[in-house]
Task: inverse folding
């Protein structure tokens, strides 16, 4: 039996797997942010709040309408996406001509309003959301007990992440989108409705946040504060991966999840800053991020 | 004890000349200060203000012709905001007494100010034993619980069941360390041992890694030395990872009924915890809870019930001495036993600690619970002298 710095390998494998699970959340959320930044040049600070709303919509569907997890998985991102479309149409779209900062300030304000409203109506302790029956229980992997639900989260978010990457990097629609970011006027001249495309992109980006919220609901408390806790880390992930880079967001999300998992074994006290240490180092060495392009 | 009593009597004699009712500024102003928007807003928050109002109503809203007024403030869990609010209240707002103040850091700041400015401070929310220990004050009363009581009650019960090997998952700040230390002391005193600990940052969402380490330690008990969202997330994920099913016990060292409500019984069932108050204890608590619920829309936590009890005791003392002079009122509060729906025969010790019975409770299973908020089985009553730290050992300079 070999030990690594006093940590038995079973524990290490367990922690790496858990890191992967957390990493898939980071990937899913930072993917949405990256898509929005890449296409709209908006730093969407409301992403955490929309993730929270995604979880709350799932909870409301269950408690008010009796619609379970699988319904929520489809409906909640749709509702959050529509909310995003409304926000983009009525507010964000007015700011594209201005500096990035204005978009950031607007979305930050929106996030505070959304969180404040939910806090007012539902309190801060959070609401319980049960794990769906089909995914209850777990597998004994020898080195750890893996709850089925966590396994499902990894699979689901990996599928969504790579699906999104494929759609943007490898399909015709994705090509239009990428072209529209490079030169919107020219793309519009070819007869493509750029404003609609941008609105749809924002809606899709926040729908990803809503989906992450539904996936998170059975693991964490559905609480108005859940987004605030996560959003800063997710921003760091996007910065490390390179603002706007789709692949960067996915790979960095998973990688940092693993790194955080390891930190929790060797020096747990530092687990909430390790991501930011990496961010500082990356910014010093490669300011555009690991996968970003210098503009 | 004796010295304070003598001081009180001497002061009484000095001021006896002006015997008619004296209430400063002709209003008794109670400032309820707590977290109204953050993680402790559900266990204290507006509910504590409602509890204080219920106490005031019992006096018809006025004493000796002076109206009782209740003001509230949000300290946002920041010690500096708490200190500024306390100064402003006392210097400019004519506030006579400050109540609640969960979050020990904020409470320690307020304790310093109320001590200097001679104002009564009724602490229901904060848990640090320093408040009735080395930072005690002749005007400060710690009412509902403290870290020692929480740790001692739960730890003793589990060790006595033969669960002697402990592992701690601890929030990495002063409060978590203090809770872990108090519990460790109790466990070791009863011949138990500590297999290890892991410290997590405040506001952690994912506990799976720490839970796995706790599981690998093969300890009998996993002690959760954290609170609020940290504690609920840890409990919820422990059930997800099958920790309790595999024979390890989970001990929430500071869990409130609002946390259990948030968790749901499915995840929280079987947890052992110590509490200073449970709404469904007897007719008196149920009757008071009905009044509280009509205004708050939910059942009270022990912190909120404690605010009621402390404010009521304060007002009774004001009524008895016919003045809101802090020295006289504090002396009266110390010499009177606390009798209300919260406690019977509660006594205030020299260090400001209110001694009352605590309860060891176990969270019901979904099958045992008859409805919303029917959450606790009271396993046993912990007598006051066993529940709280001996004042002589508290390190408080007022204890002679």
Result:
């Amino acid at each position: 039996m070999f030990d690594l710095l006093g940590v038995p390998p079973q524990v290490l494998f367990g922690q790496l797997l858990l890191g992967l699970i957390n990493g898939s959340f980071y990937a899913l959320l930072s993917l949405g942010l990256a898509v929005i930044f890449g296409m709209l040049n908006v730093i969407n600070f409301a992403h955490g709040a929309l993730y929270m709303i995604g979880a709350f919509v799932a909870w409301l569907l269950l408690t008010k309408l009796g619609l379970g997890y699988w319904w929520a998985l489809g409906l909640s991102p749709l509702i959050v996406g529509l909310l995003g479309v409304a926000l983009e149409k009525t507010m964000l779209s007015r700011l594209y001509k201005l500096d990035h900062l204005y978009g950031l300030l607007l979305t930050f304000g929106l996030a505070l309003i959304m969180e404040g409203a939910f806090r007012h109506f539902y309190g801060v302790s959070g609401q319980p959301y049960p794990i769906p029956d089909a995914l209850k229980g777990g597998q004994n992997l020898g080195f750890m007990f893996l709850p089925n639900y966590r396994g499902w989260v990894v699979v689901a978010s990996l599928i969504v992440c790579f699906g999104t990457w494929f759609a943007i990097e490898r399909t015709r629609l994705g090509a239009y989108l990428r072209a529209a970011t490079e030169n919107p006027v020219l793309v519009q001249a070819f007869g493509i409705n750029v404003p609609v495309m941008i609105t749809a992109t924002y809606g899709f980006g926040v729908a990803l946040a809503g989906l992450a919220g539904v996936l998170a609901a059975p693991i964490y408390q559905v609480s108005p504060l859940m987004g605030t806790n996560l959003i800063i880390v997710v921003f760091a992930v996007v910065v490390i991966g390179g603002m706007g880079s789709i692949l960067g967001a996915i790979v960095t999300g998973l990688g940092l999840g693993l790194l955080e998992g390891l930190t929790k074994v060797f020096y747990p006290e530092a687990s909430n800053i390790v991501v930011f240490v990496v961010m500082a180092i990356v910014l010093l060495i490669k300011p555009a991020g690991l996968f970003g392009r210098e503009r | 004890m004796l010295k304070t009593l003598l001081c009180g009597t001497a002061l009484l004699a000095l001021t006896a000349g002006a015997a008619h009712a004296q209430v400063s500024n002709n209003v008794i102003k109670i400032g309820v200060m707590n977290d109204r928007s953050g993680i402790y807003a559900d266990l204290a928050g507006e509910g504590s203000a409602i509890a204080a109002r219920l106490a005031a109503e019992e006096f018809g809203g006025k004493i000796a012709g002076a109206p009782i007024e209740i003001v509230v403030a949000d300290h946002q869990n920041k010690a500096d905001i708490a200190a500024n609010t306390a100064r402003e209240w006392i210097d400019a707002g004519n506030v006579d007494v400050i109540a609640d103040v969960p979050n020990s850091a904020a409470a320690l700041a307020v304790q310093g100010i109320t001590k200097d400015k001679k104002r009564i401070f009724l602490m229901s929310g904060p848990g640090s034993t320093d408040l009735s220990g080395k930072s005690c004050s002749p005007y400060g009363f710690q009412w509902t619980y403290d870290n020692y009581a929480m740790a001692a009650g739960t730890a003793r019960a589990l060790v006595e069941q033969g669960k002697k090997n402990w592992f701690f998952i601890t929030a990495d700040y002063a409060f978590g360390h203090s809770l872990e230390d108090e519990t460790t002391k109790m466990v070791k005193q009863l011949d138990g041992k500590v297999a290890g600990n892991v410290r997590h940052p405040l506001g952690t969402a994912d506990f799976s890694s720490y839970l796995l380490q706790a599981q690998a330690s093969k300890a009998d008990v996993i002690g959760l030395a954290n609170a609020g969202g940290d504690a609920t997330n840890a409990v919820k994920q422990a059930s997800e990872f099958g920790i309790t099913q595999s024979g390890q016990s989970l001990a929430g060292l500071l869990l409130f009924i609002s946390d259990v409500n948030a968790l749901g019984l499915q995840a929280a069932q079987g947890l052992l915890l110590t509490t200073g108050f449970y709404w469904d204890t007897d007719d008196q608590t149920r009757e008071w809870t009905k009044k509280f619920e009509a205004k708050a829309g939910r059942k009270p936590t022990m912190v909120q019930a404690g605010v009621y009890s402390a404010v009521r005791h304060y007002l009774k003392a004001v009524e008895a001495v016919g003045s809101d002079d802090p020295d006289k009122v504090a002396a009266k509060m110390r010499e009177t036993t606390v009798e209300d729906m919260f406690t019977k025969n509660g006594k205030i010790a020299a260090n400001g600690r209110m001694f009352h019975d605590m309860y060891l409770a176990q969270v019901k299973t979904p099958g045992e619970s008859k409805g919303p908020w029917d959450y606790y089985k009271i396993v046993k009553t912990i007598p006051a002298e066993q529940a709280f730290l001996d004042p002589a050992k508290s390190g408080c300079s007022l204890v002679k």
